Amino acid sequence: SLNLVWRRKAHAALEAVAMTAFATRPIGHLSGGQLQRVLFARLLLADTPVLLLDEPFTGVDADTTQALLTLLHQRHQQGCTILAVLHDRAIVEHHFPLVLQLSTTGHRWGCTQDIFPSPDRDVRSDRVRVRAAI
Question: pTM surpassing 0.70?
């Protein structure tokens, strides 16, 4: 039945983000990081051509961030466009080839290596907001 198909898809999505043990827990009882992983599981179920993410790695540790980035790369390889608001320059530089950098003095758009040519400049010190796209 269709219900069984969706249950299997939901279970697979929770498994992909290591949240199957929390499948029956009310969403209000999850930690911030657990909630982020459940939201990513929901993204895996959405069959959309574009994903819009606002600080998607807030509240998750480095290992979970890497696992979630892997899931985003898989979605991108399947033809999905990923737009994310991020403040972590290292994530932007390593995973997002296009950047729109917004600051109080203006904005810049282009390839990540052109926007951030110097590896020792900290994006947070400039009080900028970065929108990155895969």
Answer: yes
Q: Strands of 129-133's sheet, edge to edge?
A: 50-54, 81-86, 129-133, 98-103, 106-111
Question: Inter-axis angle of helices 62-77 and 32-45, to 10 degrees?
Answer: 10
Task: Tell me the C-alpha distance between 37 and 34, whole Å.
Answer: 5
Question: Which pLDDT tens digit goes with each residue over 39-65?
Answer: 989 988 888 999 999 999 988 889 889
Band (133; pLDDT cuts 50, 70, 90): low
Question: Of 39, 94, 85, 27, which is closest to residue 62 (Cα–Cα)?
Answer: 94
Tell me how far apart the alpha carbons of residues 21 and 106 are, in angstroms, rounded to a whole number: 46
Q: Hey, what's the torsion of the CAs at 85, 88, 90, 92, to 10 degrees?
A: 10
